[in-house]
Amino acid sequence: MRWAIKTFLASTCLFGLLFVHFPSHAINTRLPQQASADVDAFRHDLLIQIAELERTAALSGWSAEQLQRVGYLWEAVGDETRAIAYWERAVALTPDEDTLRQLTLAYINEQHFQTALATLSQLQALLPDDNWALYYTALILAPTSPEEALTYAHPLLLHNAYGTLMQDLYSILNSGQDAFIIQSDVAALYASRRLWPLAEYAFQNVAENYAPYPDALAYAGLMRAMQNKSAQANIAQALALAPDSSTIRMIAGIERRIYQDYEASLAAIYQALALEPTDPVFYSELSLTYSGLGLYDEANYWSVVSRLLQGIGTVDTPPDQASSSDDDSEEVSIPTYDPGMGLSEDGMNNLADIVETEPDDQWMRAVYGWALLEEGKAEGGMTLIDAAYLNANDDMRIAFLKARAHYILGELDEALALYELIASTEDPISELAQADLNALR
């Protein structure tokens, strides 16, 4: 099995088909007023309990059980740093199995992996045959010390709970591939299993070891977003390194959707589509963002387009939409589309049918033209793109495709004129046009 970094991003909800699909409701950062008031009241009650325990301990001293309890309360409040401080004190008094496990998970969440390994060593000293400790030790070691990780993964290959993931991890670590491929595949595996803190760590490790690697930076940022952490710095750095990356533009769109900034999400996804207009994944992600906006007709249309471009169903017999609903299963499926490789024969036929049945959709007409260009049919492709631009010359996405087509065909004057026109607008596509202009000059 291959989990290569370029093909991991995908499924049927959240990353889309080329991305690990995250449901559009994955993280809700905006609560209704009553819900927000309820949360505030709950936090207040927790803080009162903490204060009472602190007061009691000031009079009679701390027990390990009290420290553990306050740690759980701080975790419930949302302050894991303070929780860790109390659990560390509890373990110093009494190395308790449950507290050591809780500390390990907290260290992983906070990206303190060396400290997590030390805590796992304590747990193994307490419980030499503990499979939980073996499991997390293998997961932490795999991105940076694959050979050592193998020794921890091997005893768990047939384990009821951990066996499936350990088998996949063992296969990657024992594949004999270059270190870059192994590290990338480990990161992709963790993301596909929704192990967000570990996936962030693994992608960040790849980004640092093979810098500059903008895709890995962006993926690390997306893993942060899935944990409700700020991802803007990662994504901004990735875009600065690769402004023409459709993958990174798509990640930017997904990250904005996670935080319910749907207009910014749409802008980024349309940028990705302008760069890779035949990618079914991007239309799936577009559908999810429209769903977030409550525009369900648009969401349904682009969801159908996505699946038709994959060759699923036909225009006369549309694909079953029920199967494209958010998938919260443990593992995220991996799609078959490869960027830049064009559509399958069924996907190409469906695209032609879409253009025929939706004659007013000039974007899809231009996309069909672009698909023909990818097949080497320059004359037919350019004819369709020209027709789309003639009917919708205020659509900067179509203008951008036309500029790129002229450039590919060696018609530089025409390409430059269109790029300059697009760059002079305030449309989100102007950013892409300016990047191309900078590269051409």
From TrEMBL:
The keyword Signal applies. InterPro entries: TPR-like_helical_dom_sf, TPR_rpt. Residues 1-26 form the signal peptide. It comes from the Bacteria. The keyword Endoplasmic reticulum does not apply. Keywords: Signal, TPR repeat. TPR repeats lie at residues 64-97. SUPFAM superfamilies: Protein prenylyltransferase, TPR-like. PANTHER family: CELL DIVISION CYCLE 16,23,27, CELL DIVISION CYCLE PROTEIN 27 HOMOLOG. This is Tetratricopeptide repeat protein. It comes from Phototrophicus methaneseepsis.
